[in-house]
Write a structure and sequence with these properties.
241 residues; Rossmann fold; 7-stranded parallel β-sheet; 34% helix
């Protein structure tokens, strides 16, 4: 396994924790339906509008280079949402066959036109692909939405369909401040699944994962720390929320 940031070129995001805290439990219940509100509703309930703008193109280039992807290869994006990364991977590598797995019927029905028919509805712990059948599996800010047992099964499934060629990114925290901020922000992960980087490394090893991984960790500007987290925090990557 190797720790590598394949989302380094994703734009930094600013998040308003104070706004997210208001009505948090109600918003969590709405978000966990993964419907229109989660993708295209208010920011307090999810993405706040998830539209294609080309921001995944440079990331697709880094992924293609990392996995040495070429025409004819098959790539699976687990939790692909509306398929924007899939679309950009096929643009960066002409002839690449990108497929997606997504739990949200809304996201599938509103996916990018270039990936229509390439996204199956399903969950990460049961991948509808044969063993060793794809060149790479991407799972970005997805499996932390499962309970711990299902999360382990999902990691094992990723390894099964692409041994040593998986990439998993998950929410993580390194200290109490980051943990509390994460709890105030995340809408869909079970609290017991959240963990530190070492917690996730241990889970990967226990599940037999041999691919690569990285973390989405919320960070604060110094000025915002002085406001006791009531300002607008900046994070490393804009993942599933």
């Amino acid at each position: 396994m190797a720790e590598i940031d394949l989302l380094a070129k994703y734009p930094r995001a600013r998040r308003n924790l104070a706004a997210r805290r208001r009505g948090l439990e109600e918003n969590r219940a709405i978000a966990r339906r993964f419907g229109r509100e989660y993708f295209d509703g208010t920011r307090e309930q999810g993405y706040g509008g998830y539209h294609y703008d080309g921001r995944w193109v440079p990331i697709a280039g880094d992924i293609a280079k990392h996995f040495d992807l070429k025409s004819g290869d098959r790539v699976l994006d687990i939790g692909c949402a509306k398929g924007f990364l899939m679309r950009d991977l096929m643009e960066v590598v002409p002839g690449l066959e990108a497929f997606g797995l997504e739990v949200s019927q809304y996201a599938i029905e509103n996916s990018h036109p270039d990936v229509r028919g390439r996204i199956a509805r399903g969950t990460a712990e049961r991948l509808p692909f044969a063993s060793c059948s794809v060149a790479a599996v991407l799972c970005i800010n997805v499996i932390h939405n499962l309970d711990v047992d299902a999360c382990t099964k999902a990691i094992q499934e990723i390894e099964r369909v692409a041994p040593g060629r998986g990439y998993i990114q998950v929410d993580a925290y390194r200290n109490e401040e980051e943990y509390n901020s994460l709890l105030d922000w995340v809408l869909t992960p079970p609290q017991e699944t959240l963990g530190t980087p070492q917690t996730w490394r241990d889970r990967f090893r226990k599940a037999g994962f041999t691919g690569d991984y990285y973390w989405t960790i919320m960070e604060f500007d110094p000025a915002e720390k002085s406001q006791n987290s009531d300002g607008s925090p900046a994070d490393r990557h804009e993942g599933g929320q």
